[in-house]
Every structure is written in structure tokens, then in C-alpha cells.
Predict the structure.
Amino acid sequence: SRSRESFVGQLNAAVAEFKDAEDEEFWERVEEILVSSDVGVPTTAKLVAELEQEALRRNITSGAELKRLMVEHATKMLEGPVELDISHKPTVILMVGVNGTGKTTTIGKLSRFLPGTTMFAAGDTFRAAAIEQLQQWGERTGTPVIARDRGADAAAVAHDSIQAARREGTDVLLIDTAGRLHTKVNLMAELDKVHRVIGRQMPGAPHEVLMTVDATTGQNGLRQAKMFQEVAGLTGIILTKLDGTAKGGIALAIANEVGVPIKLVSVGEKVEDLHPFDAREFAEALFGDL
Amino acid sequence: MFDTLGDRLNKALDGVRGSGNLTEDQVKKVTREIRLALLEADVNYGVVKEFVSNVRERATGADVSKALSPGQQVVKIVNEELANLMGGTSHKLSFASRPPTVVMLAGLNGHGKTTTAGKLALFVRKLGKNPYLVACDTYRPAAIEQLQQIGRELSVPVYTEGTGPKPEEIAERGIKEAREGGYDFVIVDTAGRQVVDMDMMEEIKRVRSVSKPHSVLLVLDVVTGQNAVDVAQAFKEYADFDGMVLTKLDGDARGGAALSVVSVTERPIRFASEGEKMSEFDYFYPDRMAGRILGMGDVMTLIEKA
Ligand SMILES: Nc1nc2c(ncn2[C@@H]2O[C@H](COP(=O)(O)OP(=O)(O)OP(=O)(O)O)[C@@H](O)[C@H]2O)c(=O)[nH]1
Ligand SMILES: Nc1nc2c(ncn2[C@@H]2O[C@H](COP(=O)(O)OP(=O)(O)OP(=O)(O)O)[C@@H](O)[C@H]2O)c(=O)[nH]1
Ligand SMILES: [Mg+2]
Ligand SMILES: [Mg+2]
């Protein structure tokens, strides 16, 4: 485009480190970093276009400044409310997501992360030992767990647990659900039912619907988030397994293209490995190699 | 949501069908579309670069067939290059000449190892084997109970020593137990791990070394993105896997990571896992995967139409 040509031209004239570089090299590097971090082509293109305009407008003259600007723009794209709304009594949090992304583990950690008393509901009545897994988290954190037998109706477990939380005066009720691929129509319908049962029993609930997204997820994460958003009305994303080698760029694509804020990050299997999402820190890590 | 590569090439080559060789401009347009399609399918950035440059070279180069239109030429080239990357045939399971055959599973957290352990047990039993499961995940809460429940469902014995001993000790004793019990196919389930966790990577190396497995399978979720190549290389180094299991194929992820990993590690994908039910498991067929990644069904139609 013209703006790119004039921008690159200007840059070449002004910045020593760009003087001998091929015009496209810097941009290729930016693109490589973003695409290799799973940000995806559309969001990468949007960021690069924004950066070009802004750099032109602000008359940016150095690579370091350019990088700073890039971080700034990514940060803006990522920024959103990170606080969980726990002002209700009880606050009901529903955990959703595709298989194996970290729902149950995150619930375990949230009992330590959140102030006040918590209770778990073993809403995954499907997977082998899903109930036992949550019960072990309950023991580990001293949290009561409401469960039925394997194969029971998940909505019935949710119903039981709201009753129990009210009875016990619990501050936050955390409801686990079975992992499901967003493409499974019947399983998504079941999730919709769980959601509706909760809302009928306690108007306004669930107060938070959090979706776990594994940081290693590629572009399919976008479809996951869109479908779960449609069916369960997400209030936030929890980016898990950020302790691995993946940068988790899909979160940027989700924030940009689906509009659901990232609220928490998970960086390990231990109870203390859950933190509020820090947009700037994340953006800086993303561009660390630039 | 995504256009298939077939649609994209159709668009990019709109109006050129039937004319002579591709112009430089047309090749540029076409390779751009191929590149985008591959990146959207999560093929690794580096792999895409190489792939596209091969296609470009061949499309502009000398080997232009007189019998084909430009569109056909490109499709043919893409098809061939893709087949090259994926490796040709599917790789069937082989068994140790002296039983038991030991298979160890390894992979990132939550990618489907324990489920695969059960599925593989059922799969080999259908082939007339007598399977045995060994529970070496001493970390994840209720990992052992999970394998036990799966074993119970399938009536396959599960060896466990709880979470106390080291995984390599459990593996060694479990395999011995299987041999003495007359079981001829042992599947060792291991804990999920991240490749930056060196203690855990050293551990999988030890489990491998005491298990002396006939085969090590890397279990990889088909949704994995760009990072898959680094992950697979690390597991190759520490667990020295000889094949892969691609899981969660029942979703709609394109699975470009699989292609990248095969091309970088030169290890084939042996099995496809496509569901939570124990029976939803089969050998992997590379040609089907190429179709999935790029919508080759459409590409083949394009070839036929062109
Ligand atoms: N390294 C690492 N592992 C994690 C993290 N979060 C979860 N895990 C692990 O990922 C695996 C799956 O976690 P679960 O909590 O069982 O995931 P889930 O979404 O409940 O899975 P399903 O209920 O089967 O769909 C387990 O091995 C967890 O210990 C994380 O932030 N880092
Ligand atoms: N839809 C679908 N789900 C699968 C498939 N394979 C495994 N799962 C689900 O993915 C989740 C994780 O599977 P596990 O077998 O526990 O994974 P793992 O690798 O053993 O996990 P860790 O031991 O925690 O590392 C569970 O909810 C499984 O039911 C598959 O092919 N399709
Ligand atoms: Mg779970
Ligand atoms: Mg497991």
C-alpha cells in the first residue's frame, strides 16, 4: 500500500539500523513473530496496519520506538476487565471449554485465588475419574465438593450445588463441566441446559462464565471461543499452560475477533499457579524477540 | 468460515484457466493464497515458507507439463508437495518378536494420553492381543483412578503403585508383572508435561530407558498451533518417539501442526483418535489428513474440472 511504502521510505531515511535493511525485513520479522505465536493472519494484519499508520502519524524514527509502539497496540487490543464479579451471594462461576484445557485444575486453584469461602460442583459427570479429580482438589484446598455419581445429569448437580451454597452461605460456587468440542451439537445443547437451569434457580447467575484456552492452541481456538460465546455467554478467558513454550497468541486473536477479555493466566499445575492477566506483560513477552 | 484451498485457487486463477503458462504475477497470487491457507491451518511458519518456495519454484520453473492448464499445474504441484511432507502410506502397528510388546505414551498435559492408553488396549485386543496397562502418572490428581476406571470399563488390568514410587520404578515393575502374567501387550501411561520442565523431561527419558519400549508414541492434540514443532523436537530428544497419535480429530481443527511435525521430526502419525469413546480410534491415513488441512477434496475437483 502507499502508506507502507511512504512509511518504509521515511524509516529508511531516518533510522540508522534500517538504512541497509531490506524494506520488508522489519515487517516480515513482525509478521513472523505474531504468526509463529498463533496470533493468526487477520489479527496480525490488523496490528501491522495500525502500527504503520500510527508510526507515520507520530513520525517514529527508531526501531526501539517502533517496538514500543507495537507493544502498546497489542496491549490496547488485549486490555479488558480482569476482575471477576464476585459481589453476589453466592457468586456462581461456570467453567467451560474443550477437552483437556485445564477447567478442573483451574477451579482447584480459584479456591485459593479468590477471597472468601468457595464450594466446588462436580459437573463433569462424564469423563473417567473427573469427579475424583475435583474431589482431590477439594481435599487439597479444604473445599467442600458437591457431587453425584458418574453419569448423573450435570444440570442436576448444578442445581444441588446452588442449594448447598445457599444453605452453607458460601461466597463463591465454582461449577465444573465436562470438556466438549464446540462442534458437538448435543454436548453444546447440554451446556446450554446447565446454563439455563442455573439461571432459573438464581436469576442473574451464572455471574461469570469462564472458558479455559490452552496456550498451545492454534487458529481453531477462535472457533472454540465463538461457539462457547454463543452458547454460554462467556465473561472471560483463562489462558492455561503458559508455562510451556507456547506464547498463547491465540488469546490476542480471541480478544480482537471475538471480543471476550482474558482475565486469568495459568502457569503450572500447582495451586498457586494462577494469576490475573497482565496485558502489557503479555504483549512484551510476545514481542520479546523483536 | 475458512475457504478451502480449492476455492482460493479458483478465485486467484479466475480467468486464467486454459491459457498457457502462468505469469509471474499469477504465480505470486497463487502462492499467496497457498501461504494463507496453510497458516490458517496452523502449519508451522517455517514449514510454510519452505513449502511455498518449493511450489513457487516448480510453478515458475521448467517442469511445465503441456497436457495441463495453469490451474491444474498448480494443484498438481501442491498436491505432490503436500504428499511429500505428510509421508506416503499409513504405518501399521508392529509387535515385538519376543512378547510383551511395550508401548510408552508421552506428551503435553491434557492432549489425550490416558484416553489413548485405553483406546490402544481395546484396539490391540481386537487384533488378538492380551493388553495390560501401567499407570505411571503420579502427579495429576486422580490420574490413576482415571486409568483404572478405563481399565475396568474395558476389562483390561491396570498396574498401579499409587503416587509414592518414581514413575520409572512403577514402569519397570509393571512390565515385569505383565510378562509374568502372560500379557503380550503393555501400554505405559505417563504424566503430561511441558518441554521446558527439565526435571520432567529427564524423567520421561528414565521411564523410557527402563521400559525398553518397542514403540514410543507422542500424543498430540490436533488443535496444537505453531508451537507443535518445538514440542515434538523436544520429545524426540528426550523420549525418542517413533510415531505419533493425533487426538481430538472429531473436532474441526485443520491440523496443520501434524503436517509440520511429520516434516520436521520425520516421524509418522500412526493413529487417529476421534472421540471420547474407547472405540473411536484407528490407524491414521495421511491422504485423509491432507484433505482435511487444505480441503483437498475441492482441490481434486479442481484438477478434474480444469
Ligand atoms: N503445565 C501446566 N499444566 C496444566 C495447567 N493447567 C492445567 N494443567 C494440566 O493439564 C491437564 C488437564 O487439566 P484438567 O484440569 O484436567 O483439564 P480439563 O479441562 O478439566 O479436562 P477435561 O475435564 O478432561 O476436559 C492436567 O494434567 C493438568 O495438570 C497449566 O497452567 N500448566
Ligand atoms: N473429543 C475428544 N476428546 C478426547 C479425545 N482424546 C481424549 N479426549 C479428551 O481429552 C481430555 C484429556 O484426555 P486425557 O486422556 O485425560 O489426556 P492426558 O494426556 O492423559 O492428560 P494428562 O494426563 O493430564 O496430561 C479428556 O476429556 C478426554 O476425554 C478425542 O480423540 N476426542
Ligand atoms: Mg475436567
Ligand atoms: Mg493422563
User: Anything to note?
Assistant: Chain B touches chain A through 49 residues (CB under 8 Å). Residues A 103-104, 124, 130, 176, 179 surround magnesium ion (ligand 3) (CB under 6 Å). The first helix of chain B runs from residue 5 to 12.
